[in-house]
Sequence to fold (255 residues):
Amino acid sequence: MSSLTNNIIISTRPLVENDAIKNHLKAKGACVLDFPMIKTVGVGLDEKLKSILNQVDKYEWIVFTSKNGVIYFYQLLTVLNIDSKVISTKKIAVIGKSTGEEVLKHNANPYLISSGRDSEDLLAEIKKEITPTDKVLLALGELAENKLETGLNNSCIVDRINVYKTIDLQYTTNDIIERIREDNYQIILFTSPSGFRNFYKIMSANKIASTFRMACIGTTTEKEMLKNNCQPLVVSPKSDAESFANAIEKYLINK
Fold:
C-alpha cells in the first residue's frame, strides 16, 4: 500500500496540463481533488510594455519569480516577433526549481536559482551578484508585491513589467464545498496568497468557518493565511513540487 492511500487532498491550484504537485501526491497514493481558486491569463500589450520588450537586449538580468512569469513573458516575445535567442545571453534569476525548469524549456539557462522560498530570499542572493550599472528586468504577475523592485532600486537600474494577471474563479456550491463543510478530507493545499484569499471568501459566503487543515508553499502565502487567523499545518521549506509533496506526506503519516 502506498504511503498516502485513502488520504483525500484538495488542491486549490490553477488547472494545468501537467500538475507536478498533484502528480507527486497521486504517485504516493493520495486522492487529489481539484478545487481551483484562480486562473492566470496574459496581459494586453500596451505601448509601455511594447517599448520595454522591444529593448529587452539592453538588460543584463531578467528575473522571474514564478513559472507563469516565464510562460507569459515568452508568449509576449512571440507576439512581438522578438527572437527569444536574445534571452539566452542574459543572466536569468528565478525562484524555485520549477521556474528554472520552465526557463530551460525556452533554451535558456538560469544563472541563479534561489535556494529560498520567496522574493526576500531571492533579493538577498541577487544583491551579491549585481553591480550598480546592471540593468535588471523583473517579469512578474500583477499581484506580485514590490519587494524586489524596491529592494533593488538602490543597487542597480531596475524595471518591472507585469506579464500576467490573476482572475478569481466563482463558485456557489459544489461537491467539494460540501466535502469541506462535512470535514471529509485530510488537507487542503495552497500555493499563492490570491488562491487562499478567494478560498476564504468562498468559505465565508457558504458560512463555513471550521478550522481548515491546510498546507502551503512559502512564507508569503503563510502570512496571508495568518492574517485571517488560519494556521497552516504544513509550510514547505522549499518551493519545488517534490519538496512540497514530501512535506505533506510527512505530516499526514505522522499526524
Remarks:
- The chain has ten helices and eleven strands.
